[in-house]
Design goal:
single chain; alpha/beta; Rossmann fold; four-stranded parallel sheet; 14 helices; 4 strands; 42% helix; globular; binds adenosine-3'-5'-diphosphate
Length: 303
């Protein structure tokens, strides 16, 4: 290429469903220092929001992180309510999205952090998220105006193994497609304003991963506050004090934020999935993602 300008992603479609309205992005007014935290879901979104808020606010305790860091493409509250609220924010903004790259509006100036997690761990986490969803959750996604398509269903299984099988068979059902999300973000991993993170690496070396995120976001770390930052991002702290970081303070789940911040571990599917299940998943990952990306998704290695 002669030009030094990268090929910036272009929006090619909308995604609208019980949860999504990607058109919110069309009216969103970017600022150059915006931070977008992106994941398929159940992959460490909330953890990363906590990390970014701790970095931005020097380890301050009790920040209303979930409120400060809205999920832009969630279709509730409606655009007319959500966008002015975000516009009114005066701090450096850090939004979350669960959309694939081709359904968002991409800014060459904003910084994007993408967090991935092995699909088997994602499905285990979805199961807990879904099985504990309460009536407020179903009312918000099904009964508020603007839903496109069928209503959001109750969990299709009462155990994680069968839940995983449906999720794999019907690509993300009943939430949204998994593979396109990983693939489209992986494809843009080399852009200068994209930083890829893996849940397994956050587990293995959270301090190291936080320092990389800080460097990417060009946020100098206040070393005096470093112990507080680490404490407030630890699993134990977030499990006990996670309400302010959890969507709606955990109000959509029986058991609240402690249900949402569940176990924080990978590999709970080992010894539960059959060899055939594992082989099916791995073959699908290879087919959908190619070897390099499938390997990164499974291990966090290779980037
Ligand atoms: P589990 O359900 O496997 O426990 P998301 O925010 O994308 O929905 O992801 C939720 C997952 O991240 C949950 O996984 C939750 O426990 C985990 N999580 C949240 N904070 C964490 C932390 N500080 N350390 C480890 N895992 C964390």
């Amino acid at each position: 290429m002669n030009s030094s300008e990268p090929n910036w992603p272009v929006k090619t479609r909308e995604m609208q469903s019980h949860h999504f309205d990607s058109t919110f992005w069309n009216d969103y007014k970017f600022r150059d220092d915006d931070i977008i935290i992106s994941t398929y879901a159940k992959s460490g979104t909330t953890w990363t929001q906590q990390i970014v808020s701790q970095l931005l606010f020097d380890g301050e305790e009790g920040l209303p992180t979930a409120e400060m860091s809205p999920w832009l493409d969630l279709r509730v509250p409606p655009k007319e309510v959500k966008l002015p609220e975000i516009e009114a924010q005066t701090h450096r903004r850090f939004l979350k999205t669960h959309l694939p790259v081709d359904a968002i509006v991409f800014s060459p100036k904003a910084k994007y952090i993408y967090i991935a997690r092995d699909g088997r761990d994602v499905a285990w986490s979805w199961f807990n998220h879904h099985i504990n969803a309460n009536e407020n959750y179903y009312a918000a996604v099904n009964d508020s105006p603007g839903r496109v398509g069928p209503p959001f269903e109750k969990p299709p299984a009462d155990n994680p193994v069968d839940y995983f099988r449906v999720w794999l068979e019907k690509d993300g059902h009943p939430y949204w497609p998994f593979w396109e999300n990983i693939r489209t973000w992986w494809e843009i991993r080399d852009l200068p304003n994209v930083h890829m993170v893996h849940f397994a690496n956050m587990k293995a070396d959270m301090p190291g991963e936080i320092r990389k995120i800080a460097e990417f976001l060009e946020i100098p770390i206040n070393e005096e506050k470093w112990p507080a930052i680490l404490k407030h991002c630890s699993f134990d702290y977030m499990k006990e004090n996670g309400a302010s970081a959890t969507p709606l303070g955990g109000g959509f789940w029986d058991g609240g934020a402690k249900t949402f911040i569940n176990k924080g571990t990978n590999g709970r599917w080992h010894n539960m999935l059959s060899d055939e299940d594992v082989a099916k998943y791995e073959a699908k990952a290879l087919e959908e993602l190619g070897e390099e990306c499938a390997n990164w998704l499974a291990t966090g290695k290779g980037l």
